[in-house]
Automatic annotation (TrEMBL):
This is UDP-N-acetylmuramoylalanine--D-glutamate ligase. It is found in: Cytoplasm. It catalyses: UDP-N-acetyl-alpha-D-muramoyl-L-alanine + D-glutamate + ATP = UDP-N-acetyl-alpha-D-muramoyl-L-alanyl-D-glutamate + ADP + phosphate + H(+). Residues 118-298 form the Mur ligase central domain. It comes from Sphingobacterium oryzagri. The keyword ATP-binding applies. InterPro entries: Mur-like_cat_sf, Mur_ligase_C, Mur_ligase_C_dom_sf, Mur_ligase_cen, MurD. Cell wall formation. Catalyzes the addition of glutamate to the nucleotide precursor UDP-N-acetylmuramoyl-L-alanine (UMA). Residues 321-434 form the Mur ligase C-terminal domain.
Length: 457
């Protein structure tokens, strides 16, 4: 049985895909394979890579414009998660009664695979990759998609997996209506992307909790009991799913917790109890204990063997640009955490290292509240090197908490400054707390430029 009943949406006619990135091109290919007349429209320039794919597939497209008259003839629209619902074109499509959905929602109609779905403000990439790694180790026929890897729609079109591990962002969730997760994970909810949610935290929380809509009594809902926003929201969002909380602050009868000897205990009714000491985890730090608990609960709910889980959690290597060790030069460790695009991610990063830290931060400020970092900055950071255009608020927020705050004009200069400010035993940490779009194409390019600059020292 498909994840979504296909009678909810048109199954033929004109399929318009807005945005020609990974998710859009994947949706276009799946639409073509399912017999739609597909038209891809991107207001920006389409990269040569994706243009070549569309041409090879014989899919019509336009770039640098939206021909509204043509788009309004659509039976169904698949929208890139990067396009806000507030733009006039999207409003016009919806006003015309045309369903506007996400690539995930579209593709879920055409697969019977189990869907393990992970969202959260922080840690979702690590948890998604760790879960995928565990499933692979266990010999599961598994695909990896969502906010990571190849598009879900493309994999549904051209591959045949039994299980998908999906990293799901709030932007994707906003355009998902009938989708059902076999396992839904909400890791945490902290202020992020509030510019897309009228600067209202409750709107962002509501977006995250769309994850558990449509779940049945046979499904699992995994969540962090220690997360304030999640716990506050639980009574507001009913679910029939089996609830599996994870916590480092108390013992729970069902779910995951830490015992007095720092063992992770995972206990799910009618499944074998799992125990592993946190010292044995390949990913260290308090936040990674949470990530391992969440992945472990997914694995245990799906009856993976304890031995496979232990081997996976003990050998997994973290993803690029997330607390990635670049080099040790002159006794100074250089860490690339370019993926830290919000304040909470930086909190996790600072919590992972001992003093003294030279912190490189800045970029496009998304309405950040730096207050939660002040105690950690005071205790651990000896200097801040600012990058990007929005530096004034960093100066205002931390001028009383650290001895040195300086601005740089390039990543190379920032790394050179950090190198001069550091001594043996220190850590130079790129953890920006901001989006990257002022100086860089994306956080990956920002991280790569950091690594280049470090290796040039």
């Amino acid at each position: 049985m498909a994840n979504i009943d296909p009678t909810y949406y048109p199954q033929s006619g004109l399929l318009v895909v807005l945005g020609a990135g990974e998710s859009g091109v994947g949706a276009a290919i799946l639409g073509k394979d399912k017999g739609f007349d597909v038209f891809v429209s991107d207001k920006g320039a389409i990269t040569d890579h994706y243009k070549a794919i569309l041409q090879a597939e014989g899919i019509a497209f336009e770039e640098l414009m939206h021909t509204e008259e043509r788009l309004l003839q659509a039976e169904l629209v698949v929208k890139s998660p990067g396009i806000p619902g507030s733009v006039p074109l999207v409003k016009a499509l919806k006003a015309s009664g045309i369903p506007v959905i996400s690539e995930i929602e579209f593709a879920a109609q055409y697969t019977n695979a189990k869907l393990y779905c992970i969202t959260g403000s922080n840690g979702k990439s690590t948890t998604t990759m760790l879960t995928y790694y565990m499933m692979q180790k266990a010999g599961v026929n598994v695909g990896l998609a969502g906010n990571i890897g190849q598009s879900f729609a493309l994999q549904v079109a051209r591959f045949n997996y039994d299980v998908y591990v999906l990293e799901i962002s709030s932007f994707m969730l906003d355009d998902m209506y009938h989708f059902r997760a076999d396992v839904a994970v909400i890791l945490n909810i902290t202020a992020d992307h509030l510019d897309r949610y009228d600067y209202k935290m409750e709107n962002y929380v509501a977006s995250k909790f769309r994850m558990i809509r449509n779940q049945t009594a046979a499904d699992y809902f995994i969540y962090c009991l220690d997360d304030e926003e999640t716990s506050k929201a639980l009574p507001l969002y009913e679910t029939k799913a089996i609830k599996l909380p994870f916590t480092q602050q108390e013992e729970v009868a069902q779910g995951a917790y830490l015992d007095d000897d720092k063992n992770i205990i995972i206990n799910i009714p009618n499944k074998e109890i799992f125990t592993m000491n946190i010292e044995e985890l390949s990913l260290q730090g308090k936040h990674n204990v949470y990530n391992n608990m969440a992945s472990g609960l997914v694995a245990k709910a799906q009856e993976l063997r304890n031995q496979t889980m232990k081997e996976s959690m003990g050998s997994y290597v973290n993803i690029e640009h997330r607390l990635e060790h670049v080099a040790c030069i002159g006794g100074v460790n250089y860490i690339n955490d370019s993926k830290a695009t919000n304040v909470n991610s930086v909190w996790y990063a600072l919590e992972s290292f001992s003093p003294d830290i030279i912190l490189i931060m800045g970029g496009v400020d998304k309405g950040n509240d730096y207050e939660m970092l002040r105690d950690l900055v005071k205790a651990k950071v000896k200097a801040i090197v600012c990058i990007g255009k929005d530096t004034a608020r960093i100066h205002e927020s931390f001028e009383e908490d650290t001895d040195v705050i300086v601005n740089s004009s390039s990543m190379q200069e920032a790394v050179e400054m950090a190198s001069h400010l550091s001594k043996k035993g220190d850590t130079v940490l790129l953890s920006p707390a901001c989006a990257s779009f002022d100086w860089f194409k994306n956080y990956e390019e920002r991280g790569d430029k950091f690594k280049e600059a470090v290796m040039a020292l």
